[in-house]
Amino acid sequence: MLNKTIAIALLYALLSTPALAQNYMVSVNGIVCEFCAYGVGKKIRKLPFIDRSQYDEGVKVDIENQRVFVAVRDDALFDQSALFEAIESGGYDPIDIRQITNKEPSTEAIE
Fold first, then answer.
1. C-alpha closest to that of 28 among 94, 100, 110
2. Dihedral sign, CA of 88, 93, 98, 100?
3. Residue of 2, 30, 50, 51 with fewest CB within 10 Å of its CB?
4. pLDDT tens digits in sequence order for the chain, 111 residues long
5. Taking the chain, what is the end-to-end CA distance rounded to the nearest angstrom?
6. CB neighbours (10 Å) of residue 21?
7. CA 108 → CA 15, 25, 62, 105, distances in Å?
8. Cα gap 33→43, rounded to integer Å
9. What does residue 15 show for φ and ψ, rounded to 5 degrees?
10. 63: closest CA among 29, 96, 94, 95?
11. Which domains, from first to last, does the chain contain?
């Protein structure tokens, strides 16, 4: 009986904990100016899973380090291939992607 009570308590705690927002950092070749940043941001913002309440309407472009930060809505399914297609359609080359936490700085170098 005690194990069942503990299991229920753990399950309740897990389900009642708010989910952290899904944020991703994409390394992108070719983003070298404000015009580049504007164009890639515009394309990414059209994706249905973008959380427009974070960053600059869901996207932050770090030109100096050629990185794009993307916020994904908690209630949406993240589609990496759609994200990469949006970046490529702007003429840029996505190199890699990694999920980040809200605690990590959005524009400083992340190792």
1. 94
2. negative
3. 2
4. 656 666 555 544 444 334 456 899 999 999 999 998 999 999 999 999 999 999 999 999 999 999 999 999 999 999 999 999 999 998 999 999 999 975 444 444 433
5. 47
6. 14
7. 33, 12, 9, 6
8. 16
9. -75, -25
10. 29
11. 20-100 (3.30.70.100)
